[in-house]
Amino acid sequence: MTELTIQQLEATHLLACKVARAAGDYLREDQLRRRNVTLATREKLNSVDLVTAADEGVEKLIREAILKEYPEHAFIGEESYSAGEEKRFLLKDEPTWIVDPVDGTVNMVHMFPMTAISIGFCVNSIPTVGVVFAPFLGGKGTLYSAIHHPQGGAWLSEFGHDGPSTPLPLTSPPPPLPVDAPKGCLFFGEYGKDRRDHPQSNLTKKATNFVNMATEIGGREGKGGMVHGIRSLGSSTMDMVYVASGQGDIMFEAGCWEWDVCAGIAILLQTGGIVVDSNPPPDLGPTDPIPMANLGGRRYLAIRGCSEDAEGRSAREQQERLVREVWKRTERLDYKRPV
Amino acid sequence: MTELTIQQLEATHLLACKVARAAGDYLREDQLRRRNVTLATREKLNSVDLVTAADEGVEKLIREAILKEYPEHAFIGEESYSAGEEKRFLLKDEPTWIVDPVDGTVNMVHMFPMTAISIGFCVNSIPTVGVVFAPFLGGKGTLYSAIHHPQGGAWLSEFGHDGPSTPLPLTSPPPPLPVDAPKGCLFFGEYGKDRRDHPQSNLTKKATNFVNMATEIGGREGKGGMVHGIRSLGSSTMDMVYVASGQGDIMFEAGCWEWDVCAGIAILLQTGGIVVDSNPPPDLGPTDPIPMANLGGRRYLAIRGCSEDAEGRSAREQQERLVREVWKRTERLDYKRPV
């Protein structure tokens, strides 16, 4: 069991913000150069699973800056994981950085601005500091961050490193969830990279899930959710931070990895949200408390923070109710960790 | 036939930018007030078709500012159209403003920043000046605009009204379309507000279209498009401007209206893109030139501007080829103009 003081966490938060902005500068300069050339990409899994030299350059930049300051900390990064042999989930209780240098690489290749640098820091296996910087979103980039601690906080910064920040969630206190949620919710999900054509493929099931959530109440054999809208941004990191900030209600995503969501989860936890497995645990009774998602489990269902509702239901009661309503309307997805 | 000089068009562009930013200030102030209260909404068609007092306030602000300067111009606005009896498409050749005060109202209610003020100006029924301002995207908002004219231009402005602008498209000259397009394209589309559960409903067909576009080549009985990604932002205005700016390749959307796309189309045309009917015209032969979309037709398929490719195919040849490839993979949608 590691104990870090709020001062120590503030120092890691400050470093993560600084490093994320430096990584963002790197990507912005890279994009400026690209405005006259087409970006070289390499395929990983298939033609939609891309890696660019920038992904690898940024991971190196982040890793070096962090380990210079904290040589005793562990470090898990997407690109080194992908290149390596070890595929188990390696998080232990020791202080560990979990980093995605570029989430939304496809977007970056197309210059669609939903691309993020995601720097998470775990203590005792809990996402504790999170920094998500979207360098192309707005003139100065958009930075979301949090220290998950009773004396911590969560912030949105859109005016550069010396500009003002806005506390998160954006609406404070956050409103209760809609009474008939998922009806009235804003739902974020992605089609992902598994594009196989098969009735039981993840692509087919995800598409079914989206239609269920969107359809009028009573439709789809009772599975219609009549959400306000389905949003697909091509970045599970951004999906998660929008829900964490109260700019959306539900994030449902499977197939991504701990580095895609770790930083966002730190923000989500600090703003009162929850994240559980997007597949219902097999032995869970109808009134059992719902366990938090396994960070390495590749399946995430996040619900934003909220206040007690008019009938006196607590945030947790509303959130767990909504989780069960989403589970009822969605098919189990087949993503596992390689062993 | 009206003839406006480039100087006259520059004056309308300047006014539209000024008015869009003023409308954005109005929405930002409104959102700041809302951070402590829940926004009152009124349903139009159903529980996902919302209008707020801000939508109506902003339309009034824009209409008054424009008609004060140009009392002789015609004006078509979403909110006054919705409230009125006349449902025909009223555009004539006279100078006409076509305005959506708030596109992405659902997003605004949830504080998801994909909300835009869309101010288009048509001359001889052609979108000629377009200004799209997303006031919540980045600290100073994000403004896309164009004057569609040989001496015109198109610009992205992310640093406030006195900050620098970037010429559009972002990559100049724009790259050719991918050789096997739609494979490798970034595709934008929306589920929309029609949520009826029926095998032939627009929702069902749109979902089918998205899965077709996403599936591997050869899948879905030959309809698999293996696009790089499907993006749904909840704002057809923003979908259109991302394609117009070269930050995406294909925008496929039906059910929206002329005010959602008019301004974006002016930008698209100036950057070399095309927009056609998302349903193939019934009598079109396989080598016939493809006509431009009817601006009031509620069905839009836009393809970004591009340069001649390595085999010497012109931009138009690549674009028309891609249009036909998208048509092959998508079902005809049932949106018409009310008469």
From TrEMBL, chains A, B:
Q: Name one GO biological process term.
A: inositol metabolic process
Keywords assigned by UniProt?
Hydrolase, Magnesium, Metal-binding
What chemistry does it catalyse, as a reaction equation? a myo-inositol phosphate + H2O = myo-inositol + phosphate
What class does this enzyme belong to in the EC scheme? hydrolase
**Protein residues bound to Mg(2+):** E78, D100, D103, D260
Spell out the InterPro entries in the cross-references: IMPase (IPR033942), Inositol_monophosphatase-like (IPR000760), Inositol_monophosphatase_CS (IPR020550)
Record SUPFAM superfamilies: Carbohydrate phosphatase
Nucleotide-binding in keyword set: no
Write out the pathway annotation from the protein's UniProt entry: Polyol metabolism; myo-inositol biosynthesis; myo-inositol from D-glucose 6-phosphate: step 2/2
Spell out the CDD domains in the cross-references. Answer: IMPase
Cofactors per UniProt? Answer: Mg(2+)
Keyword Magnesium in annotation: yes
* Record GO terms (molecular function): inositol monophosphate 1-phosphatase activity; metal ion binding
Q: What is its EC number?
A: 3.1.3.25
Which family, according to UniProt?
Belongs to the inositol monophosphatase superfamily.
Name by which UniProt lists this protein: Inositol-1-monophosphatase
- Source organism (scientific name): Roridomyces roridus
Source organism phylogeny: Eukaryota, Fungi, Dikarya, Basidiomycota, Agaricomycotina
